[in-house]
């Protein structure tokens, strides 16, 4: 049973990025507030400003205005971008080196500070240092079976820790002192401060691309065996039932109460509240799906799109209109954390009342009575 939870809206058309240069491909994206950064296969970074516009009918569109683009001087693709807005810095991974550039003019920092020997990297969104003018960066090193932790300041970098792993790591997410790692044959949780590790479950990285994503404090989302999206805490347990993905998921993102996944043909939307698949959006040739401060962005090699969530109240009303009372109530309860308390109580009473009338009309008097109560 489907719910219209998201709309797919174009943000950057291919002409804005590449004109008639067909060889240019999008390799990575980063979004920070209204700033959208795109890294390409020909070693350029593009900076756009995204403006969200809402028509009188409530239709949302995005206007992207190109600010500037910058060539990094190598014949290698820009493989990852991460913004550190507190430092007004963009961390750029290209040719196994992370360079710090200014978020506004894309110029490298004058000191030339960089991190060498990085295969991939991520930021610690639950930092342990307590310094607001520094970001904590975790890299998978080019050195075999090695993870390195760095502190990155406005114009310098400092290595904090080097950790060795039992197998070669291929993906990592960080929360505080905890690393959630996809190794060659399994996922593990590793506390880099104490060195204590815990096995989660087996996974073959040779057959499929692993997914490791921090979704909240001390909780991660992983691509498990059998096409399952598995949740795991830093204690190595799962507090939520898994969601059923397709076998070949490329990327996943969280937009509460939904888990969004991308495969070769579709964007699928599952509810974290009842694990059901709620929506399927055809999307061919997608290769990036990421969420940035609640904004979910998908991209092909040539264009960038935003998944705009429909207001939860509208989704609940659509479910009630289809007489899907249970689903509407589950979604309404789940909406509690997204809506201010007073507003939620007023909304929830009205929904219970509507649901009661639906049950009453279907002669389900006991259920209706409970809802009216």
UniProtKB/TrEMBL annotation:
The entry's cellular-component GO terms read:
cytoplasm; membrane
Localisation per UniProt entry: Cytoplasm
Domain named CNH: which ranges? 23-296
> Key word Chloroplast present in the record?
no
Extract one GO BP annotation from the record.
Answer: protein transport
| Keywords (A to Z) from UniProt | Cytoplasm, Protein transport, Transport
Signal peptide region: none
Q: Where does the protein principally reside?
A: cytoplasm
Give the domain of life. Answer: Eukaryota
Q: Which InterPro entries match?
A: CNH_dom, Vam6/VPS39/TRAP1
Name of the protein: TGFA1 protein
């Amino acid at each position: 049973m489907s719910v219209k939870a998201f709309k797919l809206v174009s943000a950057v058309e291919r002409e804005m990025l590449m004109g008639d240069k067909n060889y240019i491909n999008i390799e990575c994206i980063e979004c920070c507030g209204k700033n959208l950064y795109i890294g390409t296969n020909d070693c350029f970074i593009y900076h756009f400003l995204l403006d969200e516009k809402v028509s009188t009918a409530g239709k949302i569109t995005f206007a992207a205005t190109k600010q500037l683009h910058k060539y990094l001087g190598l014949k290698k693709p820009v493989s990852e971008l991460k913004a550190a807005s507190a430092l007004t810095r963009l961390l750029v991974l290209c040719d196994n080196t992370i360079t710090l550039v200014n978020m506004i003019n894309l110029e490298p920092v004058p000191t030339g500070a960089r991190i060498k020997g990085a295969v991939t990297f991520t930021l610690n969104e639950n930092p342990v240092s307590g310094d607001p003018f520094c970001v904590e960066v975790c890299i998978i090193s080019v050195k075999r079976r090695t993870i390195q932790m760095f502190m990155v300041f406005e114009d310098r970098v400092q290595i904090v820790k080097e950790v060795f792993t039992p197998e070669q790591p291929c993906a990592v997410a960080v929360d505080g002192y905890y690393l959630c790692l996809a190794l060659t044959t399994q996922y593990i949780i590793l506390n880099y401060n104490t060195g204590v590790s815990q096995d989660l479950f087996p996974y073959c990285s040779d057959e499929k691309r692993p997914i490791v994503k921090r979704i909240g404090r001390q909780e991660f989302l992983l691509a498990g065996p059998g096409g399952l999206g598995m949740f795991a805490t830093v204690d190595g347990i799962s507090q939520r039932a898994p969601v059923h993905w397709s076998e070949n998921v490329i990327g996943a993102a969280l937009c509460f109460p939904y888990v969004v996944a991308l495969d070769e043909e579709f964007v699928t939307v599952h509810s974290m509240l009842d694990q059901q698949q709620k929506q399927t959006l055809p999307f061919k040739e997608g290769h990036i799906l990421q969420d940035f401060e609640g904004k979910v962005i998908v991209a092909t090699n040539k264009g960038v799109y935003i998944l705009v969530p429909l207001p939860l109240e509208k989704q609940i009303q659509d479910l009630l209109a289809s007489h899907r009372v249970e689903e509407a109530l589950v979604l309404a309860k789940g909406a509690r954390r997204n809506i201010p308390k007073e507003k939620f109580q007023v909304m929830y009473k009205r929904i219970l009342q509507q649901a009661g009338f639906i049950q009453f009309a279907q002669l389900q008097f006991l259920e209706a009575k409970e809802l009216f109560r």
